[in-house]
Structures are given as C-alpha cells and as structure tokens.
Amino acid sequence: MHSNFQTVLAAIIAxxxxxxxxxxxxxxxxxxxxxxxxxxxxKADSKADTKTDSKSKSKWQPEIKIGILNGVQNVTLQxxxxxVMTDSLTKKPLQNIVAGEEFTIDMASLxxxxxxxxxxxxxxxxxxxxxxxxEYFGGVSILKKSYGLTVINIAPVEEYxxxxxPKEMIPSWHIEALKSQAVAARTFVLKNRGRHKAxxxxxxxxxxxxxxxxxNTFFGTDTAVKETRGQVLYYGGRTVDxxxxxxxxxxxxxxxxxxxxSVSHLxxxxxxxxxxxxxxxxxxxxxxSSRMGAAFGTLQGFELSxxxxxxxxxxxxxxxxxxxxxxxxxxxxxxxxxxxxxxxxSLPSTLFDVKIIGSQVVFxxxxxxxxxxxxxxxxxVYAQKGWLYNKILEHYYHGAKLKKLY
Length: 406
Description:
The protein is of the alpha+beta class. The protein has a domain at about 280-365. It is about 25% helix and about 25% strand. The protein has a 7-stranded mixed β-sheet. It has a 4-stranded antiparallel β-sheet with strand order 5-2-7-8. A 3-stranded antiparallel β-sheet has the order 13-12-22. Helix 4 crosses helix 5, helix 4 packs across helix 6 and helix 5 packs antiparallel against helix 9 (about 375-385). It is globular.
C-alpha cells in the first residue's frame, strides 16, 4: 500500500509540474523592419514598452513565418479555436472560422492574393492549426501565386522552437546541452528572419534553415526553451550567426576555412573527446573515376597529408580538415577543395583521409557536419561533465555573450 501511495503521489506531482511548464502568453508581433537589425525595436515599440508593466513585457515575443507548402492547388485546414480569415493586403475580415471544423482553400476559388487566419481575440500562442492533417503552432497565411498556393505557418518564436528543438537534438539529452541548443536555435531564427523574403516568409522548414514539422514537444526540450526564453547570443552589439553541427570529430572549425571571411566568434576550438563518430565511405575505382568525368581518365592516386586532429598542414586547416587535395587521373590531375569533395562524394565531414586499397577508394574520417560553431555531441559531453549552458556556449562561440531580448 505504501509503495502504491508513493507511485500515485509521484504521478500527481508530475502532472502538476507539466501543467506549470507552459509557455507564457505572447502578444502579436509587429512586422520587422527589413532595413534594420531584426531584433531592433521601433520608436513606437519603445514608447509602448514604457506604458506597460514588467509582467506584460514578459509576455511579448516575436512571430516567425515558416514556409510549409509551395505550389499546391489546395490545402485542408482546421483551427483549434475560433478564428478570423482576413485579406492580408486590405486587412478586411473575409470569414469567421469555426473551431474544429475542416475546410479547404482552393487555388481556383480563392479571390484574394494573400490571406491570414488568426485567433479571434485569442493570443497566437493559444491557437494551433492543422495543415493537411499535420498540427502546427499558431495561425496560417496563404499566398496565391501563378503556379499555386504557398502555405505559411505563422508561429510565436518560442512555440516554433518547441517544434524545432526535438528535431535538432535528442530530447532525452542533458538539460544544459538542450538549453545550449535552444539559445543557438533562437539566435539563428532571429538573425535570419527574412531569409526567404522573396518567397513570402522568413524561414523554410527544411535543413536549409531548421527542420520543423510542427507540434513535436517533449518535456526536456520544452523545459530548455522555457528556461532560456528570449535569450540569444550577442557579439559587437548585435545578434550573431550561431551555426551548429552534429559532431566536430574532435575539434571545431573556423568559419573562415569553410565559408571565407573572418568571423571573430567562430574560431576552431578543441574538444573534450576526439576521434568521435568515426565513418568510412567506399567507392570502386571505376565508380570514383566515372564521377570525376571522362576527361579525368582512370584514378591513379591521391596527394594528401595524413590526418592528425588539431594539426594543420599546407593542405589541411588548424583542426586537420582538408582544405585541398590532389586527385591524380590517367589523363589529368584535379585539385579539389575538401568541402567540394564532401558534397560530391556525400562525405559526413571534411575531417578525412583517403586511400586506394585494392580496387577500392576508401575515405575514412570523423565527425558529422560542417564543423563550425557548436558541436551538439560536444555540448552533451560538456553538460555531462557539469558545465552550464552559458559556459558551453562561451566555449563554442568565442567572445559572444548571452542577452535576453524579451
């Protein structure tokens, strides 16, 4: 009986804890000024802030527009709460939407070129939308273009991050690693709003921006988002670029060696663990030669210094990643960049060696991803060692500081 009582009591406490972990309500966000930093407030915003108390300030958060579908002829929607459909250009209400009822927007019958559906006097973070059967946070916008409909999810940033984080990091990982990821992901969002401005939205839902499939929440990732609410990385008075990758293999890479140009806060740093996530990719000599093209001939060999993590050479960066290497063919020799080889041969990283063994070309290496910024695996290792998320972020983003924007 005593054991059963403890079990029931623990379950009640867990329910109360989950219920209290919801995100604070957010007011609708004004459209960002594309000509200024995306995090800067307008004078009107600043005046409004002075008239509100600290409690109401804490409720505000930006909105983000995420492209979900492109070029479709129709889309089926369902709203979780009473909503209003408005014309995005004239702001005139077009139709009241009943909660829980499915309806279809059709390309042929849509008169407006752009519509939005939001809660009727209900905060955006209290509304969910089903788009072709998939649940998303917030409301929806639809653009009518010559080739079809573009369907856009309008979500509060903090709710969007609740959907993003489980796709970017294992939800059961250490909370300090998850919090590091939450800050890096939020920084990316606010730095890159308007990345797809030409398409009519801010970010896409693929790996080009951040993977987002709508409502996909877990206790660990929800907690990480809540406990870092509004926090981003700042350097030189503005939001930084905060790239991240799966695993550095033992040492991260300077942005200048991957994308060119010096970036002060994105420099190579050593890791606690080295030679992590070992991988091998094989090709037959015939297949490899074919990929190089007819003018290349048959593969004869390679010229590349041996890999030592953390040791540079004329053909390797400070971390040991391949800058360039020579591929010798029977008809010509090609000098190829490491990043080009990674794309051409679908290699997990540029931290590699390559040899001909018998009739096989064998790439062996470590890590996964471009290697710049935070290593997600490395963040987990440091969290397990007792590092707090701010220390983890300071390690990977040299000189950048945490700043709470809202």
